[in-house]
Amino acid sequence: MHSLAKNSSLMKRGFPKYGSAVNYLKTNKFYATKSNHAAKNIVYIDGVRTPFLQSGTSYKNLMAYDLARQSLVALQNKIKFPREIVEYIVYGTVMQEIRTSNIAREAALAAGYSDRTPAHTVTMACISSNQALTTGMGLIACGVYEVIVAGGVEFMSDIPIRHSRRMRSLMLQANKAKSIGQKLQLLTSIRPSYFVPDLPAVAEFSSNETMGHSGDRLAAAFGISRKEQDEYALRSHTLAAKAQQQGHLTDVVPYKVPNVSEVVNKDNGIRVSTPEQLEKLKPAFVKPYGGVTAANASFLTDGASAALIMTEEKALQLGLTPKAYLRNFTYVSQDPVDQLLLGPTYVIPQILQKAKLNVKDVGVWEIHEAFAGQILANLKALDSDWFAQNYLGRSSKVGVPDLNQWNAWGGSLSIGHPFAATGVRLATHTANRLIKEDQQFGIIAACAAGGQGVGMIMERYPGAKV
């Protein structure tokens, strides 16, 4: 009846025939014939982050929600924009706290944003805040919003640990039990094995292999020695320490953590060791011959990051000078067993092709460092004609950039890697390095669990300042 009534109403309004309806649509230029949204320049105003800390240190008594809130507050304090201009908030997270499952919304409310500002949370392993950024870009490109905050947070000091499945089932049944007798009967069925906790998986669900084992196999496949891995890790820590000392890490905003006497004002995982000290460490995964150790792998980290993005037109209206244009992005995925960590190799040629650029056109490279061996394997794959021909569908290799432009301020091995916060850290470092190093284009690339990866291109904004 509803559909008949609706059709009758249309008839009365002048749609007795299909042809008349088509003519009406053409006359009034409905969306069926043309979109009103022209392409707009999307700009990166700035980004911030809490200091990245090793898990179990100064943040250990907080929640992920606290760090996310702090990053939102810090972003607003640094840029001095009115909260009312933000139309949407999107955050990434991986190890989800069940009490704040939509952490973007909870953190936004706690940071003083209006309850009328929508927010949602995304997850894509180590590229979750890249996904937050590109989700924001998509919303802006479609003309839905003009101003968006994107970020990410990870809190490894307090990960969700569940009761075993049998115990959970028993507890749910007990909750439904209507009498004391029924509850006592359930209690008598408990066995000691029920008390063994269900820990978060450290292995790929599809392959049941830990990422560390994958890193060792990848390094072995590309003939990367333990010494080479230690040397790269030492490079990362040395460059990060230098950047920290020279004041380049301006995205870090000090945080007065409740019940911690000293203000947390810097990343605490940066340690410049000697080759001899690194050599003494034992393999962490494939024993005794593996190359991945605690020193040449990214460590468990707590931290949050946030960035403000908008249309260029809106930025100029607000009197804000962006740091960079957000240009192109793409995602890739491949075999999660043998090529779990090769995301950068697959995504870099694709993103360069989309932007009509080549390796030499890019002056800033910010590539996520999961393991030293993973980075070195990607560099070898990019420099291999054989790999290009057999896996990338190219006639010749992609090529290797000038390593002086590669993670010049250190990377995840040294600065830290709060899974979902790293993407925005990479973007802010790219923007700041473009300015300081007087370069036009920067590339962000990262691998992620599941054999996935992301590539993004940023372009320096004219007149930008750090």
Task: Describe, in plain words, how this protein is organized in 3D.
There is one protein chain. The protein has 466 residues and is an alpha/beta fold. It has one domain (42-159, 243-458): Thiolase/Chalcone synthase (Peroxisomal Thiolase, Chain A, domain 1). Helix content is 37%, strand content 15%. It has helices at 2-12, 18-28, 64-79, 103-110, 128-141, 165-176, 180-187, 211-221, 226-245, 275-279, 312-318, 343-355, 372-382, 385-392, 412-415, 422-436, and strands spanning 42-49, 53-54, 88-92, 119-122, 147-154, 301-311, 324-333, 364-367, 441-448, 452-460. Strands 1, 2, 3, 4, 5, 6, 7, 8, 9 and 10 form a ten-stranded mixed beta sheet that branches. α4 (103-110) links the parallel β3 and β4 (119-122).
Determine the oligomeric state from the structure: single chain
Please tell me the overall pLDDT.
Answer: 92
CATH-level-4 superfamily name: Thiolase/Chalcone synthase
Radius of gyration: 25 Å
Instruction: Determine the number of helices (DSSP H or I, runs of at least 4 residues).
Output: 16
Series of secondary-structure elements, N-terminal to C-terminal? HHEEHEHEHEHHHHHEHEHEHHHHEE
Give the class from helix and strand content and strand pairing: alpha/beta
Quote the beta fraction. Answer: 5-15%
Which fold name fills CATH's third level, the topology? Peroxisomal Thiolase, Chain A, domain 1
Major β-sheet annotation: 10 strands, mixed
Gap between N and C termini, in Å?
64 Å
Supply the CATH class: Alpha Beta
Shape: globular
Work out the count of structural domains. 1
